[in-house]
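Run log, item B.
One chain of 413 residues. Sequence copied directly from the ordering sheet:
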Amino acid sequence: MIPFIQNLIIKIIFILIIFEFFLQVLDFFIEKEIEKEFEKEIEKEFDSFYFFGNWKIQNPINISNNTFVNIKNYCIRKSSISRVYSQVNNKNNKDVWDLDLFNIKYGNPNNYKKAEKIGSGKYSNVYLCENKKYVIKELKPISLNKIKREIKVLEILEGKNNTIKLLDVFKNEEEEEEGKNQSCLDSRYHNCTSVSLVFEYIENINYKELYPNLTKQEIKYYMKQLLIALDYSHSKGIMHRDVKPSNVLIDHQNHRLELCDWGLGEFYHPGKEYIVRVATRYYKAPELLLQKKDYDYSVDMWAFGCLFAGVVFRSNAIFKGSNNSDQLVKIVEQLGFNDLDQYLIQNHLFLDSEVFEIVKYFEKKDFSPFVNEENQDIANQNAIDLIEKLLVYDSKKRLTAREALEHQYFQEE
């Protein structure tokens, strides 16, 4: 009797093992089918996009009623963390970067009298004061947080190392009253505030007139000063996010450079996602054009690379796209598709299918065709090498401001 029971138990255990194995196999195939259905839904919803890399599904879902933003939340994506100054704001006290803890100290508007308008932009107008010692940047009605951020950034920088110094802030009472009856320029907010920022007046020469006439040594000097400003701001945990010629003030007579307009300045936190609608098109880094939100200080270094190349090659801008998609096309036309492909795969990014069809066969080009009789004395091999090390897709391979300062271009006689 006992042998019979033993055999029966063994058979039951064997059957249970087989059954468990069958369930695991069934579960495996069910999971695969779910993933296939999920991928079909993605293709159905987003057939206008060309996907790169292996997207690993964490939680299969029915996406028919979801947007791409929701889909991203179900996918594993590598975060981009800066190679330098990544922990500055994590080490700082919260009151350094938390705008909710910051209160603006307002001065007296009667201390200043506006004269002629000397500049304007989307968010502000700039006026020269009657005494010509100061300029007033009058902000149009925008969100209080945006104003706080610009002022806080300027206060942290303190006007040191070639960054513009904030001297005073006062309320624009008339503009503020008007702002209550209109929507903010920034559509995400409804409550508008208007203030004016006061800076020292700098005898700036328009870059379109100045840059073509700079000597080799003058270019080297001013580019070095700009890199010092960028390295300093990055060391303070701040991205400028709008580096371009018109935001670089140069008093040529006194050989003085100041990086201005910190309206898009932002505090860097590793892995944090930021808006990509920053920077001016000709100076937008590829990651911004590819909607990569977890970017870092390196967006400033791409912009510097574009600015530097424009100065060295005696060109207004080397990448001139008619829109953001065309801007990316112009970049790939020079840097080639293969490196972009690798960057997309590594970062699980996607490319619009129309752009992909245009750029998929582009080969990497040398920068030497930019050299001509007009710029050959300036665009030497070291200058081109610096440009090539700045204008790269992968932000982790892009030179930092400190590394650029140590480049051979700035060491040569």
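Observations after the first pass:
- Residues 42-78 have pLDDT under 50 and may be disordered.
- The chain has three domains: 2-72, 79-99+203-413, 107-201.
Flagged for discussion on Thursday.
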